[in-house]
Specification:
Strands 2-1-3-4-5 form a 5-stranded mixed beta sheet. It has a single domain, classed as Cytidine Deaminase, domain 2 (3-Layer(aba) Sandwich), CATH 3.40.140.10. The two termini are 26 Å apart. Helix 8 crosses helix 9. It is of the alpha/beta class and 177 residues long. The structure holds zinc ion. The site of zinc ion has 6 residues, from helix 5.
Length: 177
């Protein structure tokens, strides 16, 4: 339907997360998507909605948590978060708060680009592993390509999303997601 990058990895849950990011892109929003999976079923899905809903808290992962609604601690502890990009501090914090045991990341750049996440000396994926989570990083190029395209088209919107004052816009634009 378009010339947008296509996901290479064969994982229906990551595809669902990526579909959310494409949906956001077509809405003029930041192309980051996420789904929450419980016992093989998607129970929450969302995409970054800062632009669409004017809410600074609605990163893709947070939108998926919101969409899943209130869940019991027992359910969270059986869930996996699929996200097109390595989660930021806010989304990581929520994931740790609810004690999800597993995170699957589509992109590699966000995970590998930060080497000292929260002063841990680790990447985001490494940090999550160090606190006991199982982390899968697919290293698929499509999420980065789509976000780079958005960031090139709307650098100010992207900088706002990551709390950046402009210094990171350029070669590093995809390194914090
Ligand atoms: Zn986030």
């Amino acid at each position: 339907m378009s010339d947008l990058p296509q996901l290479s990895v064969d994982d229906p849950f990551m595809q669902a997360a990526y579909d959310q990011s494409v949906k956001s892109y077509h809405e003029g929003g930041i192309p980051i998507g996420a789904v929450i999976v419980h016992r093989g079923e998607i129970i929450g899905r969302g995409h970054n909605s800062r632009v669409q809903r004017g809410n600074p808290l609605l990163h893709g992962e947070m939108a998926a948590y919101e969409n899943a609604g209130r869940l019991s601690p027992a359910v969270y502890r059986e869930c996996t978060l699929y996200t097109t990009h390595a989660p930021c501090s806010m989304c990581t914090g929520t994931t740790l708060l609810y004690k999800l045991p597993k995170v699957v990341i589509g992109d590699s750049v966000g995970a590998s680009g930060i080497t000292n996440y929260l002063g841990s000396g680790k990447s985001i994926a490494g940090f999550l592993r160090s606190v006991g989570l199982e982390v899968v990083v697919y290293d698929d190029p499509a999420p980065k390509l789509l976000l780079d395209r958005f960031a090139a088209e709307k650098p100010d919107v992207w900088a706002e999303d990551i709390g950046d004052d402009g210094d990171l816009v350029g070669p590093h634009i995809s390194r914090i997601t």
